[in-house]
Amino acid sequence: MLYYQIIKGIIMEKFSLIIILFAALITPLITARFHIQRMPTAISEILMGIVIGKTGLNIARPDTSVQYIANLGVIILIFLGGMEIDFSLLEPKKDKTIYSPLGTSFTGFMTILFMSILLSGVLYLTGIFTDFVLAVILFSTIALGVIISLLKEVGLLQTNYGQTILLTSAFGEFIPLVALTIYSAVQQRHYISVLGLPVIFIIAIILLHRFNRIYVFFDKIDKATTQLDIRLAFFLIFTLVTFAEQIGAESILGAFLAGAVMKLLKPKPDTEDKLSSIGYGFFIPVFFITTGVNLNLRTLFTNWDAVLLIPIFLMAFILSKAIVYFVFRKRFGRRYAAGASIVTATTITLVLPILQVGRNLKLISMAQSGAITLAAIITCLVCPILFNKILKTEE
């Protein structure tokens, strides 16, 4: 029996990538078959990972190669998040009568940050969650990628309302990323890394300046067998990720800056499509499914302290964004303000790498990480549905 278990474990490790890729293939087919396409793809992939992983059938046991692909997946996911930022929204409007979403979105995020600090203080003082700073970073994050997809589906991405939510979400991804990098460096006592943090931004600016002139030249010499724009994108990713790691920063910050640099180079629409195809076609599904595979809910539900965190963090994710209502109400009215406060509570994209950093630094346990992940998954299931209902009511 023991030998059988050993042989089974070896086989499962060897075929884990095939199992995960097959799961990635059939997940959208299953959601289409049962008419649940409204569920964010990331959530359906995590749920599929739970089914085939430690919690469910336990037929997928990722080895180092699968984990490496999953790590690349989160890097490319954050890179594509950086590419989604519309930098024209940050430009001051010459005509003062034209609405600019910058002021509203920045004020909105600052209220989220204030509420996150308040809620984290309550959890710290009550002893429910003792890492105050990590809680602030978690509560202030917003799932930029999920929200962009949702705004595209409902046709709001190009409206003033959609742009304001988009920019608020961008703040909710970039600022927590920087905060996580600084906090991680302090926890590891790499204080020089904090001083070296501007270096990664300087490198990003140098890369932007260097490639800004020759990027136009790419169109003249590019061909199907060279794909220079894709090669440049991966060069930017690995350059900034490598430098970020060398100065003690988080790799995902380098990936985000690489996406921002690529966006500022103004790539062709088909470049973004090709990069999205590579990311969402292979690397990113492996990351989300592997996250579900590694999530052991059986162990989680035997730890009642961790189980208690699920409703607490779920309420905190929602309450930290509820205050956005008062910022959006002045500009868009009550219903759309309520929709903004609900949709910005959607959080999963950055929560997963934050929790991974927390586990690596031994700031949180695996059970706590699983509980917080489950709370984030619930926000992605509930908040988009409520947002769509509010919009339908308004219509």
TrEMBL record:
It is a multi-pass membrane protein. Gene3D superfamilies: 1.20.1530.20. One of its GO terms (cellular component) is membrane. Residues 23-391 form the Cation/H+ exchanger transmembrane domain. It holds the Pfam family Na_H_Exchanger. It is found in: Membrane. The chain crosses the membrane at residues 6-30, 66-85, 106-126, 132-152, 164-185, 191-211, 232-258, 278-295, 307-328, 334-355, 367-387. Belongs to the monovalent cation:proton antiporter 2 (CPA2) transporter (TC 2.A.37) family. This is Sodium hydrogen exchanger. It comes from Companilactobacillus kimchiensis.
